[in-house]
Amino acid sequence: MSSGSIQAPRLNGSVPGIPGAVNREVETLPTRLPGGSSIGPLTEAMPNALLFEVPGVARYLIRDGTSIEVAIAPAADRSAAQLFLDGSARGTLIHQRGELALAAATVLSPDFRCVAICGPSAFGKSTLAAALCRRGWRLIADDITRITWNGVISIAWPGNAAVKLWRDACAMLGWHDCDRLSRVRNGLEKFHVPVPPAPGPAALTAIVRLRMDLEPGLVALPSAACERLLREHTFRPGQIEPLGRGSDHARIVGQVAQGCRPLRLDGSRRCNIHQLADLLSEAMR
Amino acid sequence: MSGSLVLIASFPKSGNTWIRIFLERLKYGPDHPINSLDGGLQGMLRRQVFDTLVPVNAADLLSDEIEFFLPDVYRRFAAELEGDAFVKVHDTARRNRQGEWLYPTDSVRLVIYVVRHPFDVAVSMACHFGSTSERAVDFMGLEEPERRVSKATDAMPEDFGSWSSNVNSWLNGPYAVTMVRYEDLLATPMEQFSGIAVAAGVRVTSDELSLAVEATRFERLQSEEMRTGFVERPGGSLRFFRSGRAKCWEGVLDPAIRGRIVAEHGAVMKRLGYTADGDTLPMPSQA
Description:
Chain A is of the alpha+beta class. Chain A has 2 domains: 13-96, no CATH class; 100-283, Rossmann fold (3-Layer(aba) Sandwich). Chain A has helices at residues 78-96, 125-133, 167-172, 225-232, 246-258, 273-283, and strands at 13-15, 18-25, 37-40, 43-46, 49-54, 58-63, 67-72, 100-108, 114-118, 138-141, 144-149, 154-157, 162-166, 182-183, 190-194, 202-211, 217-220, 261-266. A 7-stranded mixed sheet of chain A has the order 1-2-7-6-5-4-3, covered by helices on one side. Chain A starts with 12 loop residues before the first strand and ends with a helix. The model of chain B is unreliable at 148-153 (pLDDT under 50). The two termini of chain B are 36 Å apart. Chain B is built from 11 helices and 4 strands. Chain B is of the alpha/beta class. In chain B, helix 1 (16-28) packs across helix 9, helix 4 (118-129) packs across helix 5 (133-141) and helix 5 runs parallel beside helix 11. Chains A and B meet through helix 1 and helix 3 of A and helix 2 and helix 3 of B.
């Protein structure tokens, strides 16, 4: 590297919302995980270790619930490497700790009700979280929420203080000047939208599952539905057994379900995002 | 467990959903609702399967990266099946940058390829997307349309290619292909649907076949859509099951547009027995 060039910051440091865990950028990582088995495309796992790769971006080795090593591919887009570090690699790390990695955008109401918004990709979880943050709510985490159990209550831990939104979702919420925001990675029309962060961890109050196809409305589900929702919306559940965390996962799902209200928010395709935010705000007052 | 994929492939608005409903009504019975289709591993469902198997979400990947992972995703999906899965496809048959077929040849048992006269495709597509016929014909001629996931509501990127390249890619590809023409399905439904059932390996009695064919008549689908709606209808379209007849272009497409379609797609039309005056000839033997 010439002396005049600017070196990109290395991806070293703490893992957001996971005290004691660290990210470390390394020059290389092995292509295979000795003793591991293939659990998906370019993904190998064994108890307490998982290796995955996004070709042309980076390879990640997550170990013991405490460390993520990342080897960035030559000439790779570093923002992409960071994206998968903060997302999937962090999710795997949460699994390894025997905690709950929930695929949810989680927000805190002005009355300190903490709500995890779940649903498949593209159902509008992040957009709804951002809409709520425009009316006084605060962001706990976008994408993957770390949830732990302290013996009495379940706790949702803050991640990064931004939601990832497509350009059209930004426009829907009134951010028309996306080009002033940072892209989540080069080549995608998706941006980090800064929102007010929660002041710290919060007790999880409710889990809301988004549905697209029904008439708009908020439906209270029977409490027995909570465990099912938590299982269905766990981040990459196929990793849990190979990581040797099956019983831990069953236990924490049961614990979290005890104090959490299961809800269903219908109509995410049939009404606008502000109506959905109204419904949820009203229910959480 | 290990199954295989049966692809129901076509350029959009060529009868793909019609075939899918027929096969599902053969499988689940003639009253199987149009809003309870398996999904054909299409749209959002395809993205969910991808996101379950691949370590990172499709929404955070570029198109080439998604295509890198797809062959392995389909292979692993098929390996978990107990039998066949019908998969709706509008993509062209093509390889990714690494040289692998997106739909791996070792996981695809059969391709049912559906074609329709391009005059009627243009009319149907214009209605479906709420656009003009000119725009529809533009779309049918695009070789490399934008196929990146561009917003959260998109499912997965697909590359339809042009109408001609879509047809050629599948008929010249590495797969076992059973081709059916929309017009033949209308003219001789029992014969055609029966051929599809046999090719797809669905074992049924002639009574079950008759019931499924009857339950898949276009008027029945239209009336069901009127009663219950159809979840696959796009926002810009009044109805999904709109015409259900051959030569719906008559009185709609002006001669200049028809001439443009023939100029752009004449060679493939001839291959399929579609004439420049909008008729359908018996299937040429060398298609």
